[in-house]
Specification:
disordered C terminus, 35% strand
Length: 191
């Protein structure tokens, strides 16, 4: 699988296994990381400082803004009514129209999610693993399930994991880490 000569790669882009990706006619922004078995098609745009995890498919018409996380095996779709043939002959590019999709700055998409054509995922939004997104997701909102439904808002002060506290303690000759995320209590020590 190649990285075509017509790909525009920003400064500091890391493609960990370039022989195991398929990139052609796309643009990838500065400092973005791309995992193995990723395909990014022509006219797709991936912003700066993004992480695109393995086995993800980013098709033509998808625009991913800066600072976006895309989990493993995420599939974008750019055609609302896909067909193999038109009037008994194989379809060509002239037989269908790309429906654009946008993922705004700082959004996160969980592993195995499917993003249908024409959807906008809002700034700082979070799409749960395995969700099928059929409608727009507002800024700083969580979408989860099949089909994806809106959940609670993503706490803005915790959107960059600033609310996470780590407490390191020594128990016998082992060191343990209790994590207190948001308002959940740490695990109790066993005596």
């Amino acid at each position: 699988m190649p990285i075509s000569a017509n790909v525009v790669l920003g400064h500091g882009v890391k493609i960990f296994q370039p022989e195991l990706v398929n990139l052609y006619g796309c643009t990838v922004g500065d400092e973005t990381k791309i995992g193995a078995f990723v395909e990014v098609q022509k006219n797709a745009v991936v912003g700066s400082r993004c992480k695109i995890s393995s086995h993800t498919f980013i098709c033509e018409g998808v625009t991913i803004d800066d600072d976006v996380f895309v989990g493993h095996g995420v599939m974008f779709i750019n055609d609302l009514y896909p067909r193999a043939t038109e009037d008994g002959r194989l379809q060509t590019e002239a037989d269908w129209q790309v429906v654009p999709t946008r993922v705004k700055r700082g959004a996160s998409i969980g592993s195995g999610a499917v993003i249908l054509a024409g959807v906008t995922i809002g700034e700082g939004a979070l799409v749960g693993a395995g969700a099928v997104v059929t409608h727009d997701v507002p800024d700083h909102q969580i979408a989860k399930g099949v089909p994806a439904r809106l959940g609670r808002a993503v706490p803005r002060e915790n959107s960059q994991r600033t609310g996470q506290q780590v407490d390191d303690r020594q128990v016998g000759d082992r060191q343990i880490q209790d994590r207190q995320v948001h308002d959940r209590p740490a695990h109790k020590e066993i005596s």
